[in-house]
Input
Amino acid sequence: MKSFSTKSAQVEYSLNKKYRKSIWNPFVSAVKKYSLINPGDRIAVCVSGGKDSLLLAKLMQMLHRYSDFPFEVVNIALDPGYTEINLEKIKTNASLLGLELKIFNADIFGFVSTVEKSPCYLCARMRRGYLYEFAAGEGCNKIALGHHLDDVVETTVMAMFYGAQLQAMPPKLKSTSHPGMQLIRPLFCVSEKDICSWRDYNGLSFLQCACRFTEKSEYFENISKRKEVKLLLGNLEKDNPLIYSNILNSIHNVCLDTFCGYKSGGVRHGFNEIFDKSE
Output
């Protein structure tokens, strides 16, 4: 068995060899297919401490090293009020993976703990805002998040089941609050099961969820619509292994002519309007 001088070297070797087809290639493919990285970009990789964001940071580090055009990467982590144990876990994992990490503070947990309605939504919005601000201060023009293929598919299904709309999670988008900034999702084509396999193969352990709500109670976990959808899709996948890839492909093959209505640029277009234009 091949020996390694550091955990970082072991992880890189696994991404170059064992997980080249399942993780590295889909990652590079998404970067190219959706033009996520351009020459001269300075990208802030947002590290939450979970498996997805730390894998993304490692992949971005490797891509920066191998790329044939210049771009910069800076890893940033927001401490919204983590316990000392959880914060140390993030630092330790970053060090193991050979990643430099810039950590900044904002007492988001303390604020949202006083909010009764939709605290998780508010927490996510506040985190995004702080990340954009810090990234801009670091001279970055893009932030990279660790959303993977499963997140994309589950979000699409959730929008239909619980939001009564067909809405997907795009691989990149322009910030409406920070002009000139973009959000990119380089793990767009990487499946969660492959990320979990990579984690376990390398003997790594990451934060699951460091939120104060889930630390104190399983209430939010039990009512999570995302978990319901994940369970449903997992059951369907047993009979149809292509369920996730089919749903991902479906958001690339939307046939507007068959829909009763759609919204574009904030403007709603109804069936009669669409039908009349077809004449």
Remarks:
- Residues 119-137 form the longest helix (19 residues).
- The chain has one domain: 7-218.
- Residues 7-218 form a domain with the Rossmann fold fold (CATH 3.40.50.620).
